[in-house]
Amino acid sequence: MIRIGLFVVWLLRLLPFPVLKQVGKGLGLVLYAAAKERRRIARINLRLCFPELDERQRERLVRAHFKAAGRGLLERGILWWSSADRIRRLVRLEGKEHFEAVRDRPVILLAPHFVGMDMGGVRFSIDHDCASVYGPQRNKVANRMLLRGRTRFGNARLISRKEGVRPIIATLREGWPLYYLPDQDFGPRNAIFAPFFGIPAATLTALPRIARIAGAAVVPFVTRQTEDGYVARFYPAWEGYPSGDIEADTARMNAFIESLVREMPEQYYWLHRRFKTRPPGEPSLYRS
pTM of the predicted model, to two decimals? Predict the structure, then answer.
C-alpha cells in the first residue's frame, strides 16, 4: 500500500503547483474524515492549548491543520523527486544573515515541528552541508524514502536518534550545521517537565546540553507554509544560551515555539500526543 501511495505522490508532483496545492488540501479533508483517532488527538491538543477558543473555532483549526498537513504530504513529492531549481522557487529563504553571523562556530538550527519542516531542511541542504537527527521508521520503504529525501543534495549526514548524543557533538565539532527538531514527547528519559501553553510537557533537555558541550550557537529556523509555497526564516542566534540553568533553557525553547504556534496555529503538528507523558500521579490527557 505504501508503494502505491509513493507512486501517487511521485506522479502528482508533475502537476502545476496551484493545482497540486488544492489536491493536497482535498487530501487533508479526506484524512480529516477518515483518521478518527488522529482527529481526536488534535482536538484534545487544541482544547488544552487554546481553551479561550470555543468548540467551533477549534474545530475550524483542526480542519485547517489537516488541510495544511495534506498539502505538506503531497508537496514532499517535489522534495523527493523534483529539481533543486524547482525547490528553490518553492521555498524562499529569509534572514540568512543571522546564520552567516555565527558561521565561525558550530550552529544548531532549531526547527520546530511545523508542517513545512522538511521543506526548510531540504532547501537548506541544497546550499550547505547539513546534518540532522531522525527517528527510524518502522516501515522499511518509508524509512528508505525518508533517508533518500533528506540526503539528495550536497553532503547530508543523518544521525539516528538511537545513536545518542555523542555523534551529534562530533558532527557539530567537525563544522556541520545541525538541523534539530527537539519538540516532541519522547518519554521521560533525558527530559524534564517544562511549560508549553501552561501545561507541563515532557521536553528533551538535549538542546541546551548539546549547545553547551559543542559551544554551538542556536539559530531558530522556522518554515511557514504559504499560498504560493513556503518561507524558511532564520531568526537571530539566541544570546546567553545556554545559561547553565537547564530548566530555564528548556522552558525558553518551549516559550519560543509557543509564540510561533500562536502565529500560525493551523501549521503546528497537532496529530502528535505532545502531552502523552505526565508527571507522576497525573492521569493521561488522551484517555478515551
Answer: 0.93
